[in-house]
Design brief:
Elements (H helix, E strand, L loop, with lengths): L16 H6 L16 E6 L8 E6 L5 E6 L11 H5 L14 E2 L8 E2 L2 H19 L4 E5 L5 H14 L5 E3 L6 H11 L16 E5 L3 H4 L4 H9 L3 E5 L12 E3 L6 H14 L5 H7 E2 L1 H8 L4 H8 L3 H13 L3 E5 L1 H4 L4 H14 L9 E4 L18 E2 L3 E2 L3 H11 L13 H9 L5 E5 L3 H4 L3 H9 L3 E6 L11 E4 L8 E4 L4 E5 L12 H11 L11 H12 L11 H7 L2 E2 L26 E2 L18 E6 L15 H6 L5 E3 L10 E5 L4 E8 L7 E5 L28 E7 L19 H4 L21
Parallel strand pairs: 6-7, 6-16, 8-9, 8-12, 9-10, 11-22, 12-13, 16-17, 17-18, 23-27, 24-26
Antiparallel strand pairs: 1-2, 2-3, 4-5, 4-18, 14-15, 19-20, 20-21, 23-28, 25-26, 25-28
Helix pairs in contact: 3-19, 4-19, 4-20, 5-14, 8-11, 8-12, 8-14, 11-12, 16-18
Protein name: Nitrite reductase
GO cellular component, one term: membrane
Keywords: 4Fe-4S, Iron, Iron-sulfur, Metal-binding
């Protein structure tokens, strides 16, 4: 066959094909596959809240060995660097494959049987609660878990542990947006699907580094631009998407609410509000209108460090657009004024009538894979399944009936994740179970976090790699990756998607569901946790959410397989789901109105002075994810971004790669300089995926938004100094007796920042 001349249809064959063939091409004729009996398992990425569709490639032995993009309508064949490499963690040599136990932190870990690890854990739970009360034991979940498992975290804490102290790492991500959404709309989710971005005339992106944190979402941004939409980006850094914007507002971090109040001030003054929409559909407009009167562009210019003319330009572009949208992420949410920052964007969209239409709306980009679903069904300290309030007697009775307990047995609301750490320091909480989180890297003010965890009398952690937090525990339970179990996640659109099991877990590994159910059985609550697996849990979750705003009752695994995803609320088996909210102008408050909230700007918690005159802000980079426990073990991602750096403006006088000591009131780290004009001269930026001593969160302040209790990661006072040598990047922890994985386990001492340009004027290596 390889020697035959095969006619080519010039209407089908690409240009040059004939020449290539006639020159003796056909290289594929000699290829031989080294894998046989391959299967493609449809699923979704385990990382961010976009939830791109993918196929995991499974060989004849039933092992995941590769990935293919999937033509799902979320991502349409696109995957980012993390998605392409995600499959490599499934059969990674660092996987935990047996429980680890030590009775004292001074002892090394040893591998033990499941029975010994479970018995020791139950023994310590019973001892601590007997000696110090039920609430002396706490539990922390995670928003990268399937929704079935987040449901179990909340139920296990309240029914098996019978403690009020349960929260999750989504507290560090989405709770400011959630608080604002519920105040204004009575519902906690984005108002529009991603597809609506393609129909907008003005796209406002606030505090969201789309190109690095949500790369696949960029296709929607470019699609809007191709239609002629105006792009406005508000961010102290000139991110990849900001470089292409029509308007980039490089405001001072911590001043967002002042800026958006001023934008709305101009819109009011120039008569660009939709008064008919406001009169018919809102409350609180008079108070908002009065509040923004105090924020003329001149005042915003002084507070935010941007030209007054730019405030006017943004107002006119957004206010005059026939259809406009506002999307934001952690950049405006990680503040002591996080809820209020989000409310000012809601005020802007509502005042201009940009809600409930294709191309006109509002949304929040979730950072974790299940950042939306992870907060919906009960692992948050003040919520029960279906977003019910744990303080509402009727809601308590409804869930108690489903769980088969008395309402009086349900504990009251607990405290937030950071507050729980402070309680550990005070020894109010003496024991803890952590599931799918790594607070030693992800929580602010590392010294406080380490002190709190060190004071725990007992600490158990669920994970599939030995994270920095797990390495400090007494017991570590080895659990499955996302590819070794099935379950659902809800993405940033509130679209519920189905993850499918692609391979059996390694011998010795159990699902999180099995571990929680077995612990519950040994604690005497096994009858309430008689689940064989995710499907049983999801059926109970559906019933527990029925009749709520977050209604999953009409969502089934079979429907998800057929449709590729359904957007809640979905109250019935024939209901199509609700991709777009407010199409009838009604909110989810009992009166059907959007409850606008007046906002006054206040400065950040960490004050500037002569010793700390600059601003530190933090965030993600494209190659890594959150605490890096997964991505810092994947060779291609480590090669792309092996270590953290500090972005500094050329006016600060540093050369590229020069050691810079970054100092706050809580600690310091020495990092290589990445000199770039893409950051404000009075700011520095450090990515946060690495542990102490190069942890960005050794530096950040543990001040919290009073309503959402989210930490103020995005702004604190800092100074920078010259130093002699950069701090070494430690290798990720490995299980006892395991050889270091050479591709990623060597400590990193390379003093140079990343090779890829991070913005305009970035210094070159060499």
């Amino acid at each position: 066959m390889s020697g035959e001349h095969v006619p080519l249809d010039p209407s089908v064959a690409p240009l040059g094909t004939r020449e290539f063939r006639d020159a003796g091409g056909l290289p594929a004729a000699a290829w031989r596959a080294d894998q046989t009996e391959q299967t493609l398992v449809p699923t979704h990425c385990c990382f961010c809240g976009i939830q791109c569709g993918m196929y995991l490639r499974v060989d004849g032995r039933g092992k995941v060995f590769g990935v293919e993009p999937r033509n799902h309508d979320i991502n349409r064949m696109r995957l980012c660097p993390k998605g392409i490499n995600a499959y490599q963690q499934v059969n990674h040599p660092d996987r935990l494959t047996a429980p680890l136990l030590r009775r004292d932190r001074k002892q090394p870990f040893r591998e033990v049987s499941w029975d010994e690890a479970l018995e020791f854990t139950v023994e310590q739970i019973n001892r601590i609660q007997r000696e110090h009360g039920r609430d002396a034991f706490g539990m922390l979940g995670g928003a990268s878990l399937f929704s079935e498992k987040t449901y179990l975290v909340g139920k296990f804490a309240r029914v098996a542990l019978k403690t009020r102290h349960v929260d999750y790492n989504g507290r560090l991500c989405m709770v400011s947006a959630a608080g604002a959404n519920k105040l204004a709309f009575g519902i906690d989710r984005a108002a529009n699907p991603f597809a609506d971005i393609l129909q907008t005339d003005c796209l406002l992106i606030v505090g969201a580094n789309v190109g690095e944190c949500f790369p696949v979402l960029t296709q929607y941004v470019w699609g809007a631009r191709d239609r002629g939409a105006t792009l406005i980006v508000v961010d102290p850094r000139q991110t990849a998407v900001a470089r292409t914007a029509d308007i980039h507002v490089a405001l001072k971090s911590g001043t967002d609410s002042a800026f958006f109040n001023a934008v709305l001030h101009v819109i009011v003054e120039e008569g660009l509000t939709d008064e008919a929409f406001l009169a018919a559909n809102t409350t609180g407009w008079a108070e908002v209108k009065a509040a923004v009167k105090a924020y003329p562009p001149s005042r915003a210019a002084e507070i935010c460090g941007v030209p007054a003319e730019q405030v006017v330009e943004v107002a006119r572009s957004f206010g005059r657009a026939r259809r406009a949208m506002g999307w934001h992420a952690r950049g405006i949410e990680h503040h002591t004024q996080g809820v209020e920052n989000c409310l000012t964007v809601i005020n802007l969209c509502t005042a201009t009538g940009n809600l409930g239409r294709p191309g006109a709306g509002y949304g929040t980009l979730t950072g974790q894979g299940n950042g939306q679903g992870g907060r919906e069904h009960g692992q948050k300290s003040d919520l029960l399944p279906g977003g019910r309030s744990i303080n509402d007697p009727a809601h308590r009775r409804q869930i108690a009936a489903i769980w088969g307990i008395e309402e009086s047995e349900l504990p009251p609301a607990g405290t937030s994740m950071m507050e729980m750490v402070w309680q550990m320091q005070r020894q109010e909480i003496r024991g803890l179970i952590g599931v799918c989180n790594n607070p030693f890297v992800s929580l602010p003010n590392y010294a406080v976090v380490k002190d709190g965890y060190d004071k725990l009398e007992f600490h158990a952690q669920f994970d599939f790699f030995l994270s920095e937090t797990a390495a400090n525990a007494h017991v570590v339970f080895p659990v499955t990756t996302w590819a070794e179990d099935e379950g659902v996640m809800a993405n940033a659109e509130a679209r519920v998607v189905k993850h499918n099991k692609a391979q059996e877990p390694p011998e010795g590994v159990r699902t999180d569901t099995w571990v929680m159910c077995e612990l519950a059985r040994r604690l005497g609550a096994g009858g309430k946790f008689a689940f064989e697996g995710s499907r049983d849990v999801f059926d109970e979750l559906r019933r527990a959410s029925a009749g709520t705003v977050i209604d999953y009752y009409g969502i089934t695994y079979d429907r998800l397989e057929r449709t590729g995803g359904l957007v809640w609320p979905c109250p019935g088996l024939e209901h199509p789901g609700t991709p777009r909210l407010f199409e009838d102008g009604r909110s989810y408050h009992p009166d059907g109105k959007i409850h606008l909230q007046a906002v006054e700007w206040h400065p950040p918690a960490d004050p500037y002075d002569d010793d700390f005159p600059m601003t530190l802000t933090t965030g993600r980079t494209v190659a890594h994810f959150l605490s890096g426990n997964q991505t810092r073990r994947l060779g291609a991602l480590v090669e792309q971004t092996p270590r953290p750096w500090v972005e500094v403006h050329p006016s600060q006088g540093f050369r590229n790669g020069e050691p810079v000591r970054v100092v706050t009131r809580r600690g310091s780290a020495v990092l290589p300089a990445l000199v770039t004009e893409a950051i404000r001269p009075d700011h520095v930026f450090v990515p946060y995926h690495w542990p102490y001593p190069v942890a960005a969160n050794e530096l950040t302040v543990d001040a919290l938004d009073p309503r959402s209790k989210i930490p103020e990661y995005k702004v604190c006072a800092v100074r920078i100094e010259r130093a002699r040598a950069v701090d070494e990047v430690p290798a990720p922890p490995t299980p006892p007796g395991r050889e270091a994985y050479p591709e990623t386990q060597a400590p990193r001492t390379d003093p140079l920042p990343p090779t890829s340009s991070q913005g305009v004027g970035t210094g070159e290596r060499g």
